[in-house]
Amino acid sequence: MSRGVWKGTKSILALILTMSVVLAGCGGADTGSESPANSKGNDTSSTDKPKDVTLTVMANWPGADAFISKDQENNPIAKAIKEKTGVTLKIEVTKVSTVEKLNTMFATGDLPDIYVGPAWGEELNIMKKAAEQGQILDITTQLSKYPTLTMNVSQEFMPKDIYDAYHSFGDKQYFMYNRYPAKPEDIKDWLHGLFVRKDIADKVVVDPKSVHTPEQLYDFLKKIKDANIQEKGKTIIPLGSNANGWALYLTNKMFYNFTTFKIENGIAQHSFMTPEVEKQILYQRKLIAEGLIDPEAYTQTTAIADEKALQGRYAVIAAHLYNLINRKVISTVEKDNPNAVYVPLGPLNNADGDPYRHTVKAEGDNLVALMKGNKDPEASMRVLNFLASDEGWMLANYGVEGVHYEMADGKPVAKKEWIDKEKDASGTLLQEGFGNQSIYTFMAGQNRTFSLAGGPYGHQFDETYKRITEAQKIMRKNGVELLQGRNPVLTEFTGFDKLKPLLEQVDAVTKQAYYAKTEDEAMGLINNLRGELEKAGIHELEKWAAEEDKKSPFTKYKTE
Amino acid sequence: MQQQIRPPVQQASGFAPRKGRLWKEIWKHKAFYLFMLPGVVWFIIFAYIPLYGLTLAFKDYRFDLGMFGSPWAGFKYFHEFFVYYQFKEIIRNTIVISVLKLLIGFPAPILLAILLNEVRHALFKRSVQTISYLPHFISWVVVATLMIRIFTPDGGPVNELMASFGMERVFFMGEKAYFYPMIVLSAVWKGIGFGSIIYLAAIAGIDPQLYEAARIDGAGRFRQILHITLPGLKTVAVTLFILDVGGLMYAGFEQLYLLSNPAVASIGTILDTHVIQSGLKQGRFGYATAAGLFQSVIGLILVLIVNRVSKRVNGVSIW
């Protein structure tokens, strides 16, 4: 290459770099100009109308677009929020997996003003790393001005492990915690379980309440398969799920109920290393191999799973009752065939042969944080504080008083016309901007469904809520116990980096084993990964867990 | 013939220019260079500048320090990749899928081009060409969804047809025995038409006098294909083969990402999907870049080897 050409290339490169810098500079200047650190909105006691500001929100929940009104600016709730706080929220929802979204978001630096996402697991680990690496705003000073928000991250209200994680930055505070029960009556029991079409159980002459053991479930599913029931030209599938096999793992609870570690007599064993996990995997493998579980259960998308569920193709479906209600599975199937009513199956036994021992955890689901480059932290805190107040919570969950509900004896009563509208056109309430799934509730502080409102919106009229009570009678004969203990924070174990990539393979290998042609092949897959885990130090992790458990006990028994 | 053409070409393109003459020549043909500019800028922005990102393979990436400021980590991630317990399995899957695609997918467009060239009915020929090109323009997302729907054991047309003949329903997308055939055939279906364009162009460039001479000498259709068409395609075919071999470590990310599932993951996980899995899903950017760099280096080495072998054996090479 001649010197002339090189000089020319250098000029082109210099031009591109200059352009990039200029463009980046413009971007920075733009953001800067919209960052009035001391805007009027700063003063929470001010009676002046707060300055109008638009804030971007990333809701890291794939599929949550369904919870957002198409008109984000002019729905009644958005209008009320703007009137009270001057803030317009422009909400985006992730299209990829939650962990993938976080990794790409921080790597590209494309950050929203406010982040809302899962409050636990790997998502929490990445958020902690991001906070330590300066990607999230320290809100300690702002929090002190807002008692409601401060209360939401106080030890009194938070599960210990979540509290520890949120307060692990010395005197700095980065995260807020949302949608966890304000009072014991607000603790939500999702009613996870297997649900069966009563008409099909009748057809094969089995009482759904009589199915408790793995053998009984196997026999029941086999009877359904052998009956070869056809509806509208299609075969009824004995056991099905939602996308990616959710929630078929519920059948696992028949064998073991311990959490990450099985800890007995001071000895800890990682759950994947236990003999129980083999039984559980081989059981599911058998069900798949014999065509008792939908072969596509672990490979299908939500659209395909919904198609099958809404057509009533699954005789038994693994889910929680709210999922079946929210996805309109129960109402649609029943509409097409009035005899096809989904009722709880069993419940299934736990490892001790008890079908009625059930635990729930008083936990929330949303971590809220202000991100680096937030264009107006004061306005962000103002809007979050408003949403977390009783007024904001009622707005997000029940709508506008006089329009969507009226007050009677201190409790809100939904206007029946809205319940009817929702029945006619599903999603009407979400288009209005409210409801217990509305995206605004993700930022609306503690869950006060029963303590403040006496029940979910429309429970007085909506018959599906009667289903919940009926199901509770069958599934929770002995009530529910509040989960004790904390979850282990594996990242605190030195040497976890070596184990992490392998532990992240557990789920994939388990699913591969479900589809293995033979039991030997399944065991080969399990043992292969176990061997690698041993080499990477799983037994050291187990020893660490046993020690940690002695200091402050982990949760040892957990049903869904 | 070449000698007659060469002098004016040399003059026009300015071979062996003296100092400064290059710019004069560029200026003279500025319109052509202007056409080339978007391509050059594209390569600089999307192919050359991002090369710097490869340094991530040697760094402990931090969100706050970014690509430039993160501390160096040496060859740590390469070591982790080479000792990863599924390393051999992933490399094996990648190579097996690529080789199968190459064995079947490489000659397929040549065959189609030859067949199309033999078709005399113009309308039929054009229709076949158009229909065979179309799949190239359909994204893998759509193709994967179509395949899942067509081959599902739950009411898919293929299984329904099989069932009507009293055959057992088969979960084609979840059976290891059918997975590779499904992958290879769908790739061939998608690429055969578009791939044949270049061969059709090459066939069109063969001197018709050669065919006439062959016919006079009594050669039939088959002999003409064997002794005129195929040798005429040799240069193009070898060039494309060399380039295809360079992509041996790329077994088709989109296709495998969309079509692989837990039932076939043990034979369907390839380097590309592993890179995405470890990079984006596990946030191990350094490790993922190291695996990606390894993939590229192997690709480059393969191109160099095949190019040299081809130069020696056939006298055809890309440089």
Automatic annotation (TrEMBL), chain A:
Highest taxon above the source species: Bacteria
UniProt keyword list: Signal
Polar residues: compositionally biased ranges: 32-45
PANTHER family hit by this protein: ARABINOSE-BINDING PROTEIN-RELATED (PTHR43649), DIACETYLCHITOBIOSE BINDING PROTEIN DASA (PTHR43649:SF12)
The UniProt record lists the keyword Ion transport: no
Position of the signal peptide: 1-24
Protein name per its UniProtKB record: Extracellular solute-binding protein
UniProt cross-references to InterPro entries, sorted A to Z: Bact_solute-bd_prot1, SBP
Annotated region (Disordered), positions in chain: 31-51
Keyword Signal: yes
From TrEMBL, chain B:
Bilayer-crossing regions: 31-51, 95-119, 131-152, 178-204, 225-253, 285-306
UniProt KW keywords: Membrane, Transmembrane, Transmembrane helix, Transport
Membrane topology designation: Multi-pass membrane protein
Limits of the ABC transmembrane type-1 domain: 91-306
CDD domains according to UniProt: TM_PBP2
Origin: domain of life: Bacteria
Subcellular location: Cell membrane; Membrane
Cross-referenced InterPro entries: MetI-like (IPR000515), MetI-like_sf (IPR035906)
Main location: membrane
UniProt record similarity statement: Belongs to the binding-protein-dependent transport system permease family.
Matches recorded under PANTHER family: POLYGALACTURONAN_RHAMNOGALACTURONAN TRANSPORT SYSTEM PERMEASE PROTEIN YTEP, PROTEIN LPLB
The protein's name: ABC transporter permease subunit
Species for this entry: Paenibacillus spongiae
